[in-house]
Design a protein that fits this description.
The complex is a heterodimer.
Chain A: H1 26-32, H2 35-41, E1 47-48, E2 55-59, E3 66-71, H3 84-97, H4 105-109, H5 112-124, E4 129-133, H6 136-147, E5 153-157, H7 162-171, E6 174-178, H8 183-192, E7 198-203, H9 215-225, E8 228-232, H10 247-250, E9 259-263, E10 273-277, H11 279-288, H12 290-293, H13 300-314, H14 318-336, E11 348-354, H15 357-370, E12 372-373, E13 376-377, E14 387-392, H16 399-418
Parallel strand pairs in A: 3-12, 5-6, 5-7, 7-8, 8-9
Antiparallel strand pairs in A: 1-2, 2-3, 4-10, 9-10, 11-14, 13-14
Chain B: H1 3-17, H2 39-53, H3 68-79
Helix pairs in contact in B: 1-2, 1-3
């Protein structure tokens, strides 16, 4: 292993043959403790020293010093986690309810503030009802596991998030994956699943590529084969559509979506997940969705902040207008540098570097020491031939911060690639 | 171990991990996807086969492989190292 140590990744140590169940695999320890691998992992779990604004400070693991930094990695797309009105609302909820819910929603963890948030989210998504989860990951797992059963078929875009796949595994349903955004591949899967209960699962914005689903074609195929649609709008809610309701609104197809999922941790600036669908299915989920039944309810402090975040983001379009203005500015100048941005159509902007993990880490270190916090995305999170950086654009970015960002990217990546 | 035996190991793991293939002949020129494997199934088949053959190949090096025969070639390369 030592001759090609950097070719190994977390994808290679899932199975564990160590007879001691309390130990990781022997070769995992050899790999993870190798100086070159340790250096790669030093990018992860770096400490933010202030709020996840665009202008923040981190304690860098690269030089072990504190740095002022432009943060393009946090998902605080609309700046709501640090919006003064949101913070005030959260403080008021803290004073009234205390820190936690002290119980699962079914028994004692449901507060009036949870019902208010769920009703507002259902109304916002134009669905009959909504179920809140204390984690976005747990919400996808819980919704899928609560709805699907052994003998059912899930047909997922191959780029769907891990939480959807894990929910499928837990449900016992058979999972088929169609080639990313390929309608030919989706139809082939639908054709061979005829006669079963079928749920087609897609995302609003694909999180590693920033592209959108081909929703009109997907809806047409699902109607033809009588399949339900589940859309995860984690990276699109509050940003896409005339009213910010997401990609389904953007395409004018909200009424065709059976189940709409969203996270509360990204554009909303809090934490949690929510699923919106018809009242009958929400009632059923309450009986069978384990992460809802057996987790402590979402914090009332977060819920108070989230109600205000929804209000701030939807009372006018100023935050999302600013986000799209900033996204367009960044993309225009990144394309002028002839960087590979894939097929992005959103505020998630990948800069695809290629197959060299060494180059990726080298660029990441240089950018960080220049003052740009842009985390590397390595295999197996993305394919081995398309390792990348991923910009999370934000409405908070000033022109000065964007220009500084572009200067750093040009010096490190664009000029580095041409060397 | 020669390539034919390696292909037999891979075929055995395909049949064990995928549904409804018990009496079907597996053609090494085809991909596992053509036999209904999803990406999780493929990880399982490759992992079981590597464990049985006592080799460890980085997943990153398997990304471009198109069919069962090419997978066997990659295994041969590592066994002979």
């Amino acid at each position: 292993m030592s001759d090609n140590i950097l070719n190994y990744s977390l994808a290679d140590f899932h199975f564990n043959d160590n007879p001691d169940v309390l130990s990781p695999p022997d070769d995992f320890e050899e790999w993870i403790n190798h100086p070159k691998v340790s250096q790669c992992f030093s990018f992860f779990e770096q400490q933010l020293l202030e709020a996840p604004r665009v202008a923040t400070r981190i304690h860098s693991n690269i030089d072990n010093k504190d740095h002022k930094i432009i943060n393009l990695t946090s998902y605080n797309y609309l700046g709501l986690s640090t919006h003064p009105e949101v913070i005030q609302a959260a403080k008021e909820a803290l004073d009234k309810y205390g820190l936690g819910s002290s119980g699962a929603p079914l028994l004692s963890g449901t507060f009036d503030i949870h019902i208010e948030l769920a009703n507002k989210l259902a109304e916002f998504k134009q669905k009959e009802d909504c179920l809140l989860y204390s984690s976005g990951f747990g919400g996808n797992i819980g919704a899928i596991q609560g709805i699907m059963r052994k003998g059912d078929i899930m047909i997922l875009d191959e780029k769907c998030h891990r939480s959807l796949v894990d929910g499928g595994t837990l449900s016992g349903a058979k999972m088929l994956f169609f080639d990313h955004n390929s309608m030919e591949s989706l139809e082939m899967m639908l054709e061979k699943s005829k006669g079963k209960r079928i749920l087609v699962i897609i995302e609003g914005v694909y999180s590693m590529d920033g592209d959108l689903p081909k929703l009109p074609e997907i809806v047409e195929l699902c109607e033809k084969y009588k399949a339900g649609i589940y859309i995860d709008e984690a990276h699109s809610t509050l940003m896409f559509g005339e009213n910010g309701r997401g990609v389904a609104e953007h395409f004018g197809l909200e009424h065709k979506i059976g189940i709409s999922f969203g996270t509360l941790s990204k554009s909303f600036g809090g934490v949690g997940g929510f699923v919106c669908t018809n009242k009958r299915l929400i009632r059923y989920l309450k009986g069978y969705s384990s992460p809802w039944n057996f987790s402590c309810a979402i914090s009332p402090v977060i819920s108070g902040g989230l109600i205000k975040a929804l209000e701030v983001a939807t009372r006018d379009s100023s935050l999302r207008d600013k986000l799209w203005e900033n996204t367009a500015y960044l993309k225009k100048h990144l394309l002028e540098m002839e960087l590979d941005l894939g097929d992005t159509e959103s505020q998630v902007i990948p800069i695809i570097i290629g197959s060299s993990g060494e180059k990726l880490m080298n660029y990441a270190a240089q950018m960080q020491l220049r003052g740009l916090f842009l985390q590397p995305v390595d295999f197996p999170a993305v394919p081995a031939h398309s390792r990348r950086f991923r910009i999370s654009a934000s409405s908070q970015l000033t022109k000065q911060e964007m220009d500084e960002t572009l200067n750093i990217i040009e010096d490190v990546i664009a000029k580095g690639d041409s060397k | 171990m020669n390539k034919e035996k390696i292909i037999e190991v891979i075929k055995k793991n395909i049949v064990e991990n995928l549904d409804d293939l018990e009496n079907q002949e597996i053609d090494p020129q085809k991909s596992m996807k053509e036999y209904g494997a999803n990406s999780l199934d493929i990880i399982e088949v490759v992992s079981c086969s590597m464990r049985e053959l006592n080799i460890k190949i980085p997943r990153a090096e398997l990304a471009e492989i198109q069919n069962i025969d090419q997978l066997a070639d990659k295994f041969v390369e590592y066994i002979s190292k």
